[in-house]
Amino acid sequence: MKFISNLGVFICPHIFENTRPILLVIHDEGDWQCLCGQYDHDGKGHLVGIGHLIQRDASLDELFDLQDGWEAERASENDAWIRRFVNINQGTNPDTVQ
Ligand SMILES: [Zn+2]
After folding, report:
1. Mean pLDDT on 48-76
2. Which one, 31, 37, 44, 54, has the greatest CB density within 10 A?
3. Distance 29 CA to ligand 1 centre (A)
């Protein structure tokens, strides 16, 4: 494992309950979030060690070098992660807009 296994990550209720796969990973200001990528969230998030998530989905481990201010998204568990620069304060870097 390349991540530190007890690195704390925020997850949405769907990931916590394992009802949806992790399709969106956000690294923002030192915080990591592993989310289902959908927006129907009314429950509270949870904080877990990333090692638990990597045991469930080993492909997460390849995001260990995702830089702060970036996020990675994929269409399904079988798709590759696509990384993109996100700066919430300044908007999307125009150099990375497709
Ligand atoms: Zn969710």
Report:
1. 97
2. 54
3. 21
